[in-house]
Amino acid sequence: MIPNHHLDDSTLLAYAAGTLGEAFSVVAAAHVGVCPVCRGAVRAAEALGGEFLESAGNLAVSDDCRNRTFAALEQAGLYRLPVAAPRPALPRALASLLPVSSLDELGWKRKAPGVAIYDVKLGSSAQGQLRLLRIGAGRAMPEHGHGGEEITMVLNGAYVDHMGRFAAGDVADLDEEIEHRPVVEQDGDCICLVATESPTRFKSFAARLLQPFVGI
């Protein structure tokens, strides 16, 4: 099944260029691996970049530009897919960062009734955070916005907000201007892979008080 919600064009271009941060690159790679639409867009962007480099000929490149390019390529190589099949139990980009092969075996930390989190460890120089978030069936997250960029990919289950229904494979590629209130469907927990630039910005006073304890 083709996902209904896709990565933003700017995210796809950054991913293809290898300039996307580590946390966001993992989520992007996980989605590209199951989404033929975004996989095609990444290939097109990579082809365009190749044509540009070829047309540039023998133009001189500064040492600083060369060093930054190689550094970006080294990071990007960690999560390059795109492989459509066979589909693994977990996205390959994520599975390589987990100590177990099943989400059920993770050491989930219960943060609130119906809410559990697992922090995915990244490199010491990585910016932002990468987490797995599990929300119980029928639960609603408090209305919130984001202090920066956030990309969420649904791994299991589904939730609904004012932007539509997000099921397995779908991504919500959000910026600081978006506010929403996800509500998990009744037929099972929803597990998401979430990359964030900065902490969530809750609207209600009660949610803001609990935020340091919940950790999102």
List keywords for this structure.
single chain; 216 residues; alpha+beta; six-stranded antiparallel beta sheet; three-stranded antiparallel beta sheet; 23% strand
Concise structural overview:
This protein is α+β, with helices and mostly antiparallel strands. It has 6 helices and 11 strands.
What does this 3D model show about the protein?
32% of the residues lie in helices and 23% in strands. The chain is an alpha+beta fold and 216 residues long. The strands form 3 sheets. The protein has a 6-stranded antiparallel β-sheet, covered by helices on one side. A 3-stranded antiparallel β-sheet has the order 7-6-9, with no helix packed on it. It has a two-stranded antiparallel sheet with strand order 4-11. A hairpin with a 2-residue loop joins β1 and β2 (115-119). α1 crosses α3.
Topology, element by element:
Blueprint: H1 9-17, H2 22-32, H3 36-56, H4 63-76, H5 92-95, E1 109-112, E2 115-119, E3 129-135, E4 144-146, E5 150-156, E6 158-161, E7 164-167, E8 171-174, E9 183-184, E10 190-196, E11 200-202, H6 205-214
Antiparallel strand pairs: 1-2, 2-3, 3-10, 4-11, 5-8, 5-10, 6-7, 6-9
Q: Total strand count, please?
A: 11
Major β-sheet, in short? 6 strands, antiparallel
Please state the structural category. alpha+beta
Order of helices and strands: HHHHHEEEEEEEEEEEH
Tell me the number of helical segments per DSSP (H or I, 4 or more residues long): 6
In the sheet with the most strands, the strands line up as: 1-2-3-10-5-8
Mean residue pLDDT: 80
Q: If you compute it from the alpha carbons, what radius of gyration comes out, rounded to the nearest whole angstrom?
A: 18 Å
Beta-sheet strand percentage? 15-25%
Ranges where pLDDT stays below 50 over 5 or more residues in a row are 73-88, 203-214
The separation of the N and C termini measures: 31 Å
General shape: globular
Helical content, roughly? 25-40%
